[in-house]
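Dear Dr. H.,

I hope your travels went smoothly. While you were away I took the liberty of generating a structure for the chain from your last submission, since the lab meeting agenda had it listed for discussion. I wanted you to have the full record in hand beforehand rather than looking at slides cold. The sequence, exactly as received, is reproduced here:
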Amino acid sequence: MLIMAGSFWLWQIQASTENAIPIAPPPPAAMDDALPSAGPDAPLVGPAPPIPPEAPKASREEVRFNRYDRNRDELISRVEMMGSRTKAFRQLDRDGNNLLTFEEWAVATGERFAVADVNRDSLLTRKEFVRTRPKVAPKPACRC
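The corresponding predicted structure, in token form, is as follows:
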């Protein structure tokens, strides 16, 4: 108890002493605070800024590849490919319980990834990724 009382007493003494805060010197006075002015025969409008080059339009496959390549390393890992596939998740969830068992997932997606991974390095390049493109359903000949 005596140690606590002594500590409190020392703390109060230190808190009551004034700590001198140094006062900063004033900033040097500016030589001329006025803005520069143009001459009487100066042009009113300057030259136009340069026009940036137009970026090439990405193909549908490039846009699709970039959507999956989250870390932009030009490779798609299995985790990146499966990260944003909610519609595919609903199709894989056969029993509709919002839980995907390993068997449900592995059967459908593992085969698709394995077919696309030609060199078997567990990464998809742009050329390999094209093989994962969904099959396009043929359009009907007429709107009957």
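Two observations you may find useful: Residues 116 and 129 are 6 Å apart (CA to CA). The helical segments are 2-16, 60-68, 78-82, 86-92, 102-116, 126-129.

With kind regards,
E. W.
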